[in-house]
Amino acid sequence: MRASRSRYHGRLMAPRALTLIDKARRALDAGDGAAAFGALVALWQATRAPEVAPLVERLGRTVWPAPGPPRASEIPTRVRSLLARRTHAELGEILALLPRLPLYQALDALGRLRNAPPDPRTTTALLALLEATHWPSSLSNPVWESLFDRLVELGDPRALEPVRTRADRPIRGVQLGRWMRGALPAVAARLAERCVHPALPGAARAALAALDARIPEPAPDPAAARAETAATETDAWLARVLAHPEDEALRHVYADWLQERGDPRGEFIALQLAGTRDEASHKRAKALLERSWGRWVGGIRHAARRDGIAFERGFLVRCALTKRMLSTEKWEAVVAAPEWATVEELAITARIPAIWARRVAHLPALRSLRTLYVADAKLREELQAGPLAARLVPRMGWVRRG
Q1: Residue 58: Cβ-neighbour burial (10 angstroms; 0-12, 13-18, 19+)
Q2: Contacts of 333 (CB under 8 A, 6+ apart)
Q3: Which of 219, 302, 326, 389 lies 20 to 30 A from 44 at CA?
Q4: Quick check: 217 and 58 in contact, CB under 8 A?
């Protein structure tokens, strides 16, 4: 019965599909990319045909090139402003900014997106978030419920297989993974109910293929390409410094590299390497550190406070971990931080959960460590009995390099 109904709707669909494809073609010939985009989205809304989605996404990037990313502090305001308009022009930017929103603001944005016109770009963006488990906190269930609801409402057949198989791949966050593996089968079942769409008729597929050849590729953004290249090269220089923390010459080269590109960290490294002998230099270095220390310590910032860190020769050398209430995602960022490579003195206070204290204490990246304070007696005994004792000797709670 369902198959015969699908064939019946397919016969009804053919004239409308051809009309919309022709409308898009004529709009492209007239140079009206926005009108062509509107016709293609209307075609996708009428058919949910997977063949239409790539054309919508490519034309959207061509008609509305991605603007430069706003500052992190400006993103929530920018997203709210874009959501208030809810047109095709703004949706691409909203979806690009969605992963940069904190948890509670993402929940609000997803709720508002449910009032936006159905668009295949939304499916693509939501599936990318699901695949990356972008918000792995155990408190993020409402965000994922809202995301699942929107996927079901869109009824995009492209989502069915990724949702069905997502539980078979690693999911970040133990508690979230347990919850999500229980929820995904029901989401897949709901989605399957909505994904009963007839195939695009042959004549429409042929017309769509001809239209595909008319849609240009988005022009590359030279500024974005330059910024990406510079960021990659800067990361490579930083990796060299962290791989050889004892090499001061590399720090000088890195400082020069950053200063040539207007990065204030270059000035900070240079000031500290020079010894900041005069009062003005000392004040300048302090001001730069106060402004950017969180960025310069990477993921370690989640578990440390400003008064518990110190920099020398431009890099982190002393650190006290004092924050207790962190999500699994943030603790993973703490232990994954490459900035541990230059730390010489580390204090793991009693506030740190034992499982994370143990992982930090055993980090291979702590290659410069000379002094370690462990408040937890059990962990201290474990360290003294383990392989770490070969190079560290305990002394009144402090473990010093021998």
Answers
A1: middle
A2: 298, 299, 302
A3: 219
A4: yes
Average pLDDT per block of 10 residues along the chain, 402 residues long: 45 79 95 94 94 95 80 78 81 87 86 89 94 82 94 96 92 86 96 89 92 84 52 79 91 91 91 84 92 92 90 95 82 90 90 85 86 83 68 46 42
With a threshold of 0.70, does the pTM exceed it? no
Largest interatomic CA distance in the chain: 86
Question: Could you tell me which residues are beta bridge partners of residue 139?
Answer: none
User: pLDDT for 118-166, tens place per residue?
Assistant: 999 999 999 999 998 888 877 889 999 999 999 999 999 999 999 999 9
Q: How many CB atoms lie within 10 A of CB 201?
A: 18
- Collect all residues with Cβ–Cβ distance below 8 Å to 135 and sequence separation of at least 6: 103, 106, 129, 143, 144, 329
β 392-395/371-374 pair status: unpaired
Both tokens assigned to 184 = 């995904």
Q: Enumerate residues 6+ apart whose C-beta is below 8 A from 347.
A: 308, 319, 320, 321, 372, 373, 375
Burial of 47 (0-12, 13-18, 19+ CB in 10 A): buried
Q: Which residue has the tokens 């770490």?
A: 388
Dihedral in degrees, nearest 10, Cα atoms 170, 335, 300, 98: -10
Select from 200, 118, 112, 111 the least CA-distant residue to 159: 118
Nearest-angstrom CA–CA distance, 23 and 29:
10
What pLDDT, in 10s, does the model give residues 249-294? 999 999 998 998 888 999 999 999 988 678 888 899 999 999 999 9
Q: How far is CA 90 from CA 66, 97, 113, 141, 385, in A?
A: 10, 11, 11, 27, 59
Please state the length of the chain. 402
Q: Select from 331, 334, 270, 266 the least CA-distant residue to 297.
A: 334
Residue 347 phi/psi, 5-degree rounding, is: -115, 125
